[in-house]
Specification:
Strand order of the largest sheet: 7-8-6-5-4-11-12-13-17-16-15-14
Number of helices: 3
Number of strands: 18
Largest sheet: 12 strands, antiparallel
Shape: globular
Structural class: mainly beta
Number of domains: 3
Length: about 300
Amino acid sequence: MNENDGLQLLAPLRELDPDARSNVDIEKAKRVGRRTSRRRAVVGAAAVVGVFALVGIGVPALSGAFSRGAVAPAVTPAEFNPLIEVVTVGSAGGFQPQSYETGRTQQVIRLKRADGGTGSGTIIVYPPGPKPDMPPGLSFEWTPGAWAWIRLDGPEPDMQARADRVRQSVNAVPNKFAKVPFTLDRSAEDWMKVANIATFYDNRPGDPSRVTLNFSRDGLPGTPSMSIVASEDGYGPGVKENLGGHEATVTEAYVAMTDRASGLNAIAMTDPASIPAAKQVIATLQFVPDATNPAKWVANLFR
């Protein structure tokens, strides 16, 4: 399933009322190490009970994914902190960032055409270490001793020259924490570890429109356990429950809560066996004031 397929699948649901429609797309890099692929999970009111869809690869549901006491791997010099974006990418060569996905073993920036035309691109940033075995494309050191890779696709014959201009827009930046429109109690880490944060720029460059927080038992994106999507997209009907003093919608595929002040939704998707843990996590979720304004988003995920 590609992005267009997902949009067609959800088209009939967009005419429903806010509490009965669904248009949640999740895109994230799921392969660890030297290859990356694109994963899209679609939650809908009509057909999505416990489904995670991955382009090219199916991901099995994980039962009991949130066992209390799970320990994340120690962050070593050869790993990234998944809460931090290590580079910035500008608009260059006719391309601009579409999404930024953090991670421990690599960070992935997806590019789109700035003019809305045909073409796309990918930047993969690796931690310090030996040069990895990368596919054809433009490789370079984004910081001394650490490699990155760029590939652009488009109809023009000068994609390599454009890729070099994109390379020049990549800059290392220290301690740039990915910002989110909510916080969680630190006790949430008793059930899960952050695997990555995916920020999407659907509107203007540098102006995030939605964010997905991905968790797993071991803190690696290859073993997904739960995803929290924060966006203005709606979700389907379910059982209403009071979680943390707020009304939430609970199904066997997700737990959702709406910030009544801003209209932003937070949807925690997981397998049916882990819904009780997802409810405990959502019960600790607090939206920031004016949550649909990215300028109000915060770098401190846990409080």
